[in-house]
Write a structure and sequence with these properties.
The strands form 2 sheets. The protein has a 6-stranded antiparallel sheet with strand order 3-4-8-7-6-5, covered by helices on one side. The chain has a two-stranded antiparallel ribbon with strand order 1-2. The protein has 148 residues and is of the alpha+beta class. It folds into 2 domains: 1-31; 34-147, no CATH class. The protein is built from 4 helices and 8 strands.
Length: 148
């Protein structure tokens, strides 16, 4: 007993490990860092955009895209990006047609009864899958690509 206080070695170790884990998680989430495949060791919002453009073989995202969201998913051995946005229907249609993945002859194009067009593209940059869903009359875009 030091200074009349009862000290517990195991309790101190547990508290120390807990604080280390909590501090590490706070730092990782505070810096907006996630882990991904080789060549993309850490993802931030900017690098997630860059990786999505490369993996889905897209043109740079339209400047006037509204409600742009990008969500990451995956685990230790995979990484997925889901992007959605909308804009002026003609500007979005022009952007879609400027994308190398969309214009590739190997891309599969499917049109739904409501006018939604789905492009299943070969992934770029080592990605296994890339898909772009475009609703021309609404000017909406949904993109999904992943690496595993």
């Amino acid at each position: 007993m030091a200074h009349g206080k009862n000290r517990s070695f195991i309790g101190g170790v547990v508290v120390g490990i807990g604080l280390t884990v909590a501090s590490s998680l706070a730092l990782i989430y505070g810096l907006d860092v996630t882990f991904g495949p080789p060549g993309y060791p850490h993802f931030t919002a900017k690098s997630a955009r860059t990786a999505t453009i490369e993996w889905a073989r897209l043109s740079p995202f339209p400047e006037k895209a509204e409600s742009f969201t990008i969500v990451t998913g995956g685990g230790m051995f995979s990484r997925e990006f889901r992007v959605s946005f909308f804009g002026n229907p003609q500007a979005i249609a022009d952007w879609v047609q400027s994308c190398p993945g969309v214009t590739d002859p190997k891309t599969t194009k499917t049109e739904a009864p409501d006018g939604t067009i789905t492009y299943e593209m070969l992934g770029g940059g080592g990605a296994e899958f890339a898909e772009l869903i475009h609703h021309p009359t609404r000017g909406t875009i949904s993109i999904r690509t992943y690496w595993s």
